[in-house]
């Protein structure tokens, strides 16, 4: 028979879908389902990671559309950012032209893949019509006190000449630093996330979003995000880094005349182990602690130490003793004060009480300096510790701790909090979001600097502040745009200059999912009523590299917008899927590794079918030509089956002298028909269930199995024909979300009306309660399977299929493909006919 020409088929149906507006989301929607893939960064062309991401959302969107939902499946472009500027620089063009060219190419790529988007809602973040709303939102946040302008030591990439957010600094080993580090924002030793250049530190005035105001909410909210992978929730918890503990106040005495200026100062040390406080034998300050700058001014050796550790990542256990002493608030003893780089500036209070007996680091620090090791906690069971050689770090019972002796650590922590010197404290690792970038290709921050009025927001009616024309410079092109910079102060009308920083592109992507909902809305970034109706996004799919940054920022924005009264939702996404990696030769498939396969190399339909059938969306999988050809063959098989059937149908129509309509013998009840009908119902129920769970690989597995079964019937003339025809129709519908163009072709061959993309999802003919029970059973443990089947030598429960027949009897079958179906029945025996049927076909 004729092989189907997949390239032609794809192109044709893509055209028809567009002509018929299949993917345009009804407005207003009755049954809204929002399916969203993370919009691509406009880097030039689509890679396999994109394809996998969008194949997942497209399959789910198509499935829900057929199931009767009003589905929104939009697409847009994350178009601002440094790489465009770098690319433009290298190619001697400007970022805008380069970006627009990328968008054209990538849009074509997406179309060619047959993905169904509502292009009427396309958004591009570098359009002034989009970024004006970034500016508008900045102004609203500013009014609400959620924007700050602060001098800050910032991570600086000397190559990109820009500030980097903490999360844009990677450890030079290239690992996922988000999870590795527990403390700190001291990124010396890190490299720029884009170009890999070693990051340095700089002091600059910068704009921040006060995401830390939401630290608790963002942290606590994670517990309720049941549709999110645990790994992502953990990464966010870790990133927010909430630690509950206490501060302990130490009074400082200057031991010499020159240190009198610190007399009467108090240093608060943050600790999670207040129970060990009697074991504190020294106090250590971070090099950036407030007290230290004064110390350094009058003490050369402190100054030299601070200088020597600035910008180094592993100052180890170095430190320097100061001429200060601290009074231990519980014992009244005087303890020495050190400056030590292991105490981080921006963790806790930047000061620690050193407890050598119960903390590894403090123990090591003390050992090098012969500081006393004083035990305050002992094992509850009275067992020996390795003190003073090794610290005892577990909880236990207090000893040598005055009135607290004998208390358990937990109880002691509570009781000690009542003391004057102690106070409950929570610290966070999360820092405010630094959004300033000294680059051109981003949203200009809508602020005017006026000598008299200070920093004045640009009034809404003057938005957008559009980017000036691009000029090539090494620094920030906006600084060089003299004419653009010069403006009038919105307040006093006097001469003023524009802010030249642009916004981090993560601002653009923090609310884009809202813009799709009302892309032409002119009064605000989005229409609140529509947004309340559509949110949260039902499914959001994207790479796990966004586990922290982007996915924390959209949560922050949603909450901030709710507090601004612009939205009635506090979480943006109901269900999150991080798609796994496509591997090739054991390594992540990528251009830079030279192991990339272009999305169209094997044809769009084959690629989609393969990436969806290879593994669960969250799992990594290996690209192999063998598996690709399996996907290809499956399409050919389906096509052949339908073609053979239509040929047979027209033969028999001619023989019976009828154009169409049921043959006379249709009313006869035939056992094989009943069996096939039941299998059709079963397949519908199974496949629907798998689509609901995003297990497209199992959908394909079910469909392959079903196609094999159906094929065994192919040679039979009526009376099986009606069940068979239904089987083909159902198969076509069920495969449509995954191989949409092939399915349209089959639908057309079957002479069905309309488009399969718009056809209703198939329904089982009879009650499938039995099927649900069967599924439950399959999910039970191996022991249960043994109980039910009485078979003891089952190794792998996946080899066994439990079926509940309509007579409610349990039946178990081997499902391993090689097993002969007739012999493989291990439970009860199925009806004679069915065995015979299987036997015939085998
Ligand atoms: C005294 C103490 C005794 C501590 C003890 C621990 C154990 P973890 O260890 O991750 O729970 N810390 C506080 N501020 C710090 C800073 N700015 N830089 C470096 N370390 C700092 O973190 C909590 C502990 O980290 C705190 O509790 C403190 O040491 C240290 F047996 O205080 B602890
Ligand atoms: Zn002014």
UniProtKB/TrEMBL annotation:
Transmembrane segments annotated in the record for this chain: none
Alphabetized GO MF terms: aminoacyl-tRNA deacylase activity; ATP binding; leucine-tRNA ligase activity
Source species, domain of life: Archaea
InterPro entries linked to this entry: aa-tRNA-synth_I_CS, aa-tRNA-synth_Ia, Leu-tRNA-ligase, Leu_tRNA-synth_edit, M/V/L/I-tRNA-synth_anticd-bd, Rossmann-like_a/b/a_fold, tRNAsynth_Ia_anticodon-bd, Val/Leu/Ile-tRNA-synth_edit
Methionyl/Valyl/Leucyl/Isoleucyl-tRNA synthetase anticodon-binding domain residues: 673-791
Region named Disordered: 649-672
The keyword Zinc is assigned to this record: no
Reaction(s) catalysed by this chain's protein: tRNA(Leu) + L-leucine + ATP = L-leucyl-tRNA(Leu) + AMP + diphosphate
EC class of the enzyme, as a word: ligase
Presence of the UniProt keyword Signal in the record: no
Classification via Gene3D superfamilies: Class I aminoacyl-tRNA synthetases (RS), HUPs, Isoleucyl-tRNA Synthetase, Domain 1, leucyl-tRNA synthetase, Valyl/Leucyl/Isoleucyl-tRNA synthetase, editing domain
Annotated GO CC locations: cytoplasm
PANTHER family: LEUCINE--TRNA LIGASE, MITOCHONDRIAL, LEUCYL-TRNA SYNTHETASE
NCBIfam families: leuS_bact
Protein name, as recorded: Leucine--tRNA ligase
């Amino acid at each position: 028979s004729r092989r189907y020409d997949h390239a032609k088929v794809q192109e044709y149906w893509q055209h028809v879908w567009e002509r018929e507006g299949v993917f345009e989301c009804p407005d207003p929607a009755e049954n809204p389902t929002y399916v969203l893939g993370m919009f691509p960064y406009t880097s030039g062309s689509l890679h396999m990671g994109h394809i996998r991401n969008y194949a997942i959302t497209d399959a789910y969107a198509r499935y829900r559309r057929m199931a009767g939902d009003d589905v929104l499946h939009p697409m847009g472009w994350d178009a601002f950012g440094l790489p465009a500027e770098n690319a433009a620089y290298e190619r001697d063009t400007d970022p805008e032209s380069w970006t627009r060219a990328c968008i054209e190419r990538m849009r074509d790529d997406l179309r060619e893949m047959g993905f169904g988007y509502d292009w009427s809602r396309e958004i591009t973040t570098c359009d002034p019509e989009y970024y004006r709303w970034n500016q508008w939102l900045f102004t609203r946040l500013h009014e609400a006190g959620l924007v700050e302008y602060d001098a800050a030591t910032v991570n600086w990439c000397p190559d990109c000449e820009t500030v980097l957010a903490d999360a844009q600094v990677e450890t030079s080993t290239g690992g996922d630093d988000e999870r590795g580090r527990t403390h700190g924002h001291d990124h010396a030793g890190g490299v720029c996330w884009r170009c890999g250049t070693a990051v340095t530190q700089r002091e600059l005035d910068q704009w921040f979003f006060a995401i830390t105001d939401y630290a608790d909410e963002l942290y606590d909210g994670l517990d309720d995000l049941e549709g999110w992978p645990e790994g992502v929730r953990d990464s966010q918890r870790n990133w927010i880094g909430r630690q509950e503990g206490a501060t302990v106040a130490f009074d400082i005495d200057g031991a010499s005349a020159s240190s009198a200026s610190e007399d009467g100062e108090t240093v608060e040390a943050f600790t999670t182990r207040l129970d060990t406080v009697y074991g504190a034998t020294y106090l250590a300050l971070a090099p950036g602690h407030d007290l230290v700058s004064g110390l350094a001014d009058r003490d050369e050796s402190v100054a030299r130490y601070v200088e020597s550790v600035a910008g180094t990542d592993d100052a180890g256990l170095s430190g320097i003793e100061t001429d200060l002493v601290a009074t231990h608030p519980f014992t009244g003893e005087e303890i020495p004060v050190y400056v030590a780089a292991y105490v981080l500036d921006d963790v806790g209070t930047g000061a620690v009480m050193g407890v050598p007996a119960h903390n590894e680091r403090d123990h090591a620090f003390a050992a090098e300096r012969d500081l006393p090791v004083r035990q305050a906690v002992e094992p509850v069971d009275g067992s020996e510790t390795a003190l003073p050689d090794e610290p005892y770090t577990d909880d236990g019972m207090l000893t040598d701790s005055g009135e607290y002796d004998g208390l358990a650590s937990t109880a002691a922590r509570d009781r000690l909090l009542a003391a004057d010197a102690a106070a409950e404290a929570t610290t966070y690792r999360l820092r405010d979001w630094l959004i300033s970038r000294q680059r051109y290709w981003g949203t200009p921050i809508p602020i005017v600097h006026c000598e008299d009025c200070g920093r004045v927001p640009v009034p809404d009616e003057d938005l957008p502040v559009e980017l000036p024309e691009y000029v090539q410079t090494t620094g920030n092109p906006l600084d060089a745009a003299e004419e653009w910079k010069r403006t009038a102060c919105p307040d006093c009308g006097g001469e003023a200059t524009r802010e030249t920083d642009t916004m981090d592109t993560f601002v653009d992507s923090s609310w884009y999912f809202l813009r799709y909902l009302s892309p032409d809305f002119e009064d605000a970034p989005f229409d609140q009523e529509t947004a309340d109706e559509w949110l949260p996004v039902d499914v959001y799919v994207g790479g796990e590299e966004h586990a922290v940054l982007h996915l924390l920022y959209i949560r922050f924005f949603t909450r901030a917008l709710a507090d601004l009264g612009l939205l009635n939702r506090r979480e943006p996404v109901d269900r999150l899927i991080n798609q796994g990696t496509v591997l090739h030769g054991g390594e992540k498939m990528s251009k830079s590794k030279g192991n990339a396969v272009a999305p169209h190399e094997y044809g769009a339909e084959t690629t989609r079918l393969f990436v969806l059938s290879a593994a669960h969306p969250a799992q990594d999988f290996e690209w192999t030509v063998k598996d690709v050809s399996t996907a290809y063959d499956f399409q050919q098989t389906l096509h052949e089956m339908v073609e053979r059937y239509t040929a047979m149908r027209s033969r028999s129509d001619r023989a019976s002298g009828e154009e169409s309509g049921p043959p006379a013998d249709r009313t006869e009840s035939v056992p094989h028909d009943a069996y096939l009908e039941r299998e059709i119902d079963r397949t519908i129920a199974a496949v629907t269930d798998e689509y609901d769970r995003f297990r497209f690989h199992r959908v394909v597995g079910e469909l392959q199995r079903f196609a094999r079964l159906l094929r065994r019937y192919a040679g039979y003339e009526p009376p099986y024909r009606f069940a068979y025809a239904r089987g083909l129709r159902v198969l076509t519908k069920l495969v449509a979300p995954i191989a949409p163009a092939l399915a349209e072709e089959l639908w057309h061959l079957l002479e069905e009306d309309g488009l399969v993309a718009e056809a209703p999802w198939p329904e089982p003919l009879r009650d499938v309660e039995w099927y649900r029970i069967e599924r439950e059973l399959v999910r039970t443990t191996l022991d249960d399977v043994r109980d039910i089947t009485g078979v003891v030598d089952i190794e792998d429960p996946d080899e066994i299929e439990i079926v509940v027949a309509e007579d409610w009897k349990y039946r178990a079958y081997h499902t391993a493909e090689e097993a002969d179906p007739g012999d493989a029945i291990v439970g009860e025996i199925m009806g004679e006919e069915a065995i015979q049927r299987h036997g015939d076909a085998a």
